[in-house]
Amino acid sequence: MMRRVRWPHLLVLLFVLLAVFAPQISPHDPATIHPTILAPPSSAHLFGTDALGRDLFSRVLYGGRQTLGVATVAAAVALAPGLLLGVLWGIAPRPLVPSLTALFSALLAVPGLLVALVLLAVIGRGMGQIALAVGLSQIAMVAQVTRGAVVNVRDAPYIESAHAIGATPRHIIRRYVLPNIWPVVVAYAGVTFSYSVLNGAALSFLGLGELGVPDWGVILAEGRAVFNAAPWVSIFPGLAITALVFAVNALVDRML
Amino acid sequence: MAVKRSFVLCGLLCGMLLFALMGCASGDDFEPRNPIVYGLTLQPSGFDPHVHASAELGIVLRQVYDTLVYRHPQTNEIVPGLATGWTISDDGLVYTFMLREGVTFHDGTPFNAQAVAANLDRIIAPETGSQRARFMLGPYSGHNVLDTYIIQITLSERFVPLLDSLSQVYLGMASPTAFNEYSPTRYQFHQVGTGPYRFIKFTPGDEIILRRNEAYTWGPEFYDLELENTVDQITYRFFTDAATRATAIENGEAHIMGEIPPAFALTLAGTDAELLPVEVPGLPLQFMMNTARPPTDDLLVRQALIHATNRPLIVDTVYRGFSPVAWGPLSRATLHYSRAVEGTYPYDVDIARASLEAAGFEYVSGVGFVQGEDDAEPLEIIVLVPPWGGLPDVAQLMQAQWREIGVNARLVQVSGLSALRERVESGDYHLVAFDSAGFDPYVMNSFYASDGANNFTNYQNPRLDAALITAVQELSPETRRVAYAEIQQFIMGQALILPIRDYINLNATVPTIDRLMFDSYGWFPLMHNVANVAD
User: Fold this and answer.
1) N or C: which end of chain B has fewer CB within 10 A?
2) How much is the ipTM here?
3) Are residues B511 and B498 in the same domain?
4) What does the alpha-carbon distance between residue A135 and residue A76 come to, in Å, rounded to a whole number?
5) pTM for the predicted model, two decimal places
6) Which residue in the set A33, A210, A225 is minimally distant from B261, CB to CB?
């Protein structure tokens, strides 16, 4: 068992711990204004300070809480209904399949980020709203992947045998379908989480989050305005997003 | 499905064809000798000066239209433009303008009193839907053409800012032949004036092209007709992303650029680019406080919020020394600005705390100021923050400063002007950030009169209303100055606003640009004299 613990596991765990214990680890309050603006990284400010003189290390730590929180909620919002719809689509009676396929294809034809933007225009700005929008925009994708997995096992000989011995559809789904699609679902949950991190950060980068609430996307956007003078303001949150997504994807790879 | 697809395809093809035709329409043999690119910062939603209200349109169209009078950019005095002289009746209700002879519009239409009359009729016609020009004419009641080159404008009440209005591009003189030929929506693509540059082409979202009017000999006194190397073609391009503007100047993609972010201006200072900061008169960047909603209905709370804000620090941090701290309802470049408001409400957290306690709030350690005895509610101030002018940064600094004394600010971002107005109409705010440009202090009226269209403070006071009206009607400049000084002090006495900084339009040019000047309104360049001298 120990052999399976590798760097992606550790890195993801590290991100989670840093996010959970941000208030204890962070050397400063993320909103406190310090006298030196755009100070380069030093022992006083590990990641330097931003354009308003706030400690960047503390902001990136607190930002992790936001970014991970938003991505977790978004992934949950995408996965729960996505799985259910995917399974139903996979076992739907044949006459219904073409219309369901057309409906999901139409939903999938619009890029997720665009759907999220439209949703935000309706439900308003805020981190909670971003999580909801990012989650909702990925439901069709989760459903499609789940349906693919269901279709793969649906016609397997062991399912036919189950039908032959008179098992009910409910029993078949619980006993035979779900356990066999589980690896795909778990792997895709990781992918959904990564997408949620990226799309959540992209939307808060665009200014659709809450002003004053640090989030990696927000810090990245703030850094862009001073990139010539202080590249570190963008580099650290950018690295954090990249490392997290990379670690989650590597973790998913190892699970497959 | 197939039908829909062919519709979309058809639409796309038509669009491409239209673009191709627009390209052909402007194709001619003109080879510019001295062309430049001018960077604009916003995509204007509409582009007709009589109809639309943006400052962006004036940056371009100030070159296309002449006005009856001009404000001299150095002395700020009203000087002749298309009118060589004017008289004002003793009661201040009739303005008689003697017009310049021998002036023609770019399409050959002669300029005369009939043309002025047609322009005035167009501006006030309800179907024009004027968003600004109509308002600038104040209590306009009609015109009277006395001779080919003499026209009278009559008012129903005295309105001293009329000449100021007539000097602005929103009341520029357009060719009646052109605006009668095209519908209002199409005219903005075919604009014709008498100015030093002709309107050649406007492709929304892409570019606007102006070319020098070689026949131009009738400019105001500060236009020098004998200059060499003057620019003969201006292509305006949009640089809506603030982070790209300084780079565009550095690599020569644009010759002149407006609204450089202060952080980038500092990096430009190390290159051979030239910075040209221009003070914009009018209402400074400020937060208007809603007096109709507790707790900002209480004067003590409003005063506490100003005392709790370290404005010099905010201005230094966000605007990097490129903006002066604002102290009152007018910025210092505005006519009749009163220095008496300077230094009022200095940053003092002790006074701020004492004011809040006097207003009935109690300080609870770890929570901040609360109101009420049993289930005490923490004091929360809702601040509406639009994205322009560095306001998101200002608001975050303010939030941090207020938190230190125990006041919680909830920052609500609004995406633009219409979202801001919508939220203001709902009444769900305590502070709202706003600014407005204008040289005459009359710009205050719509914000502080009880029935003003922009009365975001919801302050109602018959005394202030009367003072604002008297100041607009007062003919003596000295009495007017005193009246406006009293108004400015009254507004600050009531702490209706939290002024932050005087607006500075931070322009940059490549080193070859020479003789660029801006008019008294701060936003609008006067391109007639501008030269581009390559070594």
Assistant:
1) C
2) 0.79
3) no
4) 7
5) 0.83
6) A225
